[in-house]
Design a protein that fits this description.
The chain is of the alpha/beta class. Helix content is about 20%, strand content about 35%. The chain has 2 domains: about 400 residues, no CATH class; about 45 residues, no CATH class. The protein has 9 helices and 21 strands.
């Protein structure tokens, strides 16, 4: 039995335990039909032209973990941004870990998707927002069919969340191979502001495949600052589907830092549904060995007088492969749009490769839109200059690569995140740098 058949048969068992009165009953049934019809994406599809899932679909994944594994804080402390006070929503093998978490209902809801799905007081939000931004592609539909646990965050009108929210998914390694399907719903009401940090982390070398869906709704004048830290083991694969729906005058930014994992696919989609909206998408990728990272982005400009800024940097060594497929769509009504897109890459190995395809589809005539990409190697004249000043070759390369990534890090608004990313980059490059960027 292949993985697709196993998943479909597992859904039948999963459905037997569902409440027929659940607001998601019909949504789940339709979603599993969509997945059954479409199956896993292949390279024949344009959006997956440069990324094959064959290497990660040949495992005998457990769809549901057979036993719970309680983790101690000391075992996972290093994966938290522990030098800041924050709310925490922590999952172990897809199940909520109460003793590692710190949730709240004090003016805001920072809690569990399972609670929101089962309690009547959340029903209106679920009916108005759940599965309203996510597209009906096969992998998002697969996640919708099994949606049951993840983070539920609702920031009410005029609320400034005083400390960041961390969402952490740990895989304990109890299963020989495990597939996880977390579902996050984040609703930020008018004039509210929130910062969120997300991480998926395996604790052993047992294979894990995570198919995650996050829906974010930024209402009028809301501000959402989102950070994804991807530095997993090379036996872990992540398909991250994030959908952001923005209303008038909202500001949303997503920073994606991809440093680890076997295969990582980031599907990041922004939908601008109002005027004077600002959307920011930035990322840094540093990988080696046979790692594969694919950034697939979409910004859909629907209304006039809006902006979007995309800036992705990649450093690829050994036999690593990078993909950037960035798409900006400007509808006829979206006059006065300002859209910027850039993808710059450095290959530090003759065997590394990058496939980049920036795209603009513009149907309006009064816009400022630009896109571009570069692929190259480290500047030899800059290397010579630094070597002539007594800087060893390894440190000189690291300094140049830090400088290459610096404009991405400079826009990070949480100092502790910037320090953590700086340390990870230094570790990836195998050097110690005596300053923070």
């Amino acid at each position: 039995m292949d993985l697709k058949d196993k998943i479909v048969s597992s859904y039948l068992a999963f459905e037997d335990h569902l409440d027929d009165n659940s607001p998601l009953h019909d949504i789940r049934n339709q979603a599993i039909k969509t997945f059954e019809e479409k199956g896993f994406p292949t390279k024949k599809e344009e959006a997956w032209k440069y990324t094959s899932l064959k290497s990660i679909l040949n495992q005998d994944y457990s769809v549901f973990p057979k036993q719970e594994n309680a983790l101690e804080y000391r075992d996972v402390k290093k994966y938290f941004i522990h030098d800041i006070d924050s709310y925490k929503i922590v999952f172990v093998d897809g199940r909520y870990s109460s003793h590692l978490s710190q949730t709240t209902h004090d003016g805001i809801d920072v809690c569990l998707m399972s609670s929101a799905l089962s309690k009547p007081k959340y029903r209106l939000v679920i009916e108005n927002y759940f599965n309203k931004a996510a597209t009906k592609d096969s992998l998002s539909s697969l996640n919708t069919a099994f949606a049951g646990e993840g983070a539920y965050i609702h920031i009410r009108k005029n609320k400034l969340v005083e400390k960041p929210i961390q969402i952490l998914h740990f895989c304990s390694g109890n299963e020989s191979a495990l597939m996880l399907q977390p579902r996050n719903l984040i609703v930020v009401d008018e004039n509210a502001h929130v910062q969120i940090i997300e991480r998926h982390q395996s604790l052993t070398d047992n294979p894990v495949l995570t198919n995650s869906v996050t829906e974010i709704f930024a209402n009028k004048r809301a501000i959402v600052d989102y950070y994804k830290v991807q530095n997993d083991r090379e036996t872990a694969s992540l398909i991250d589907n994030t959908f952001i729906s923005q209303k008038q005058e909202s500001h949303c930014s997503v920073h994606t830092f991809s440093f680890g994992g076997k295969l990582t696919r980031n599907n990041l989609n922004f939908f601008q549904k109002g005027e004077r909206i600002d959307s920011t998408l930035k990322g840094v990728t540093i990988i080696g060995n046979k790692q594969h990272v694919d950034h697939n982005t979409l910004v859909h400009h629907i209304e006039p007088n809006c902006e979007s800024h995309q800036d992705y940097k990649g450093i690829f060594g050994d036999n690593a492969t990078g993909v950037f497929n960035g798409k900006v769509v400007v509808e006829k009504e979206a006059q006065k749009t300002n859209a910027f897109q850039a993808n710059n890459n450095i290959l530090i190995s003759d065997k590394a490769s990058i496939n980049t395809k920036p795209q603009l589809e513009i149907f309006a005539d009064d816009v400022k839109c630009s896109h571009g990409c570069t692929i190259g190697q480290l500047d030899e004249s800059a290397m010579f200059y630094m070597r002539s000043r007594g800087i060893p070759e390894k440190e000189a390369k690291a300094l140049l690569m830090y400088a290459f990534s610096n404009n991405i890090l400079s826009s990070v608004k949480i100092p502790e995140i910037k320090q953590r990313i700086t340390k990870i980059i230094a570790n990836k490059l195998g050097v110690k740098i005596g300053f923070d960027l």
